[in-house]
Amino acid sequence: MLAGRRAIVTGASRGIGLAISKGLAELGASITLLARDSDAMYDNVKNLARQEYQEHKFVTYNLLDLAHGKEPENHSFLLEALNESSILVNCAGTTTNTLLARAPERSIIDTIDTNLVAPIILSKLAIKPFTKIGKLQKQKPVIVNVSSVLSFTGLSSPGTTVYAALKAGLLGFTKSLANELRGSIRVNSVLPALVKETDMGKKAPAGNSFPVIQMKDAVDNAIELVTDEVTVS
Questions:
Q1: Which secondary structure element, helix H or strand E, spans residue 30, and what is its range?
Q2: Which end of the chain is more exposed for a tag (fewer CB within 10 A), N or C?
Q3: Contact 11, 35 (CB under 8 A)
Q4: How many domains does the chain have?
């Protein structure tokens, strides 16, 4: 289904990002894993489904440097990957994991930069190469942003105030960019509840009222948005 296409997935060293990478690889895409943990990605890239035509690789990359206006180490490798790709999944995310009154300002800023600024800049960098490659492929290029059910509901759990605000911002960005790029690049957002197998899911306090889903549900939703010709409105 995705043979001949390359996907870049951020936050791909573990959790949802890694699971989405595996799912896309099983459908035939070549994957570029993007994260800071090179050791984890070295192992991960070897475990992706692989046919003769698939070439998986990883780029060790610090999204905070990108968000801070610096040129991260290995930036040229990211640009090279973008020129080869027609799928971008912005999955990297973090949370302060503490009540707002107790959260260090530096932690808040880093959370903003990772969850919102970095996906915006990566999407910007993808527009020109995706538009170019889209003219050569039958399927439109696609950007999928991993937001959260927190972005549009009143649900919350302790320590998610900043996270919820940023995921709402990411959803708004997704909708606006989808309209801006309509006709050339599809832009969608997946809105998972708390995923049981992720770091956040494991840290959720007992008795938490926040809805919990399985990893497979989140991954299936993301892959559906990659493969189906649908766009948010």
A1: strand 30-35
A2: C
A3: yes
A4: 1
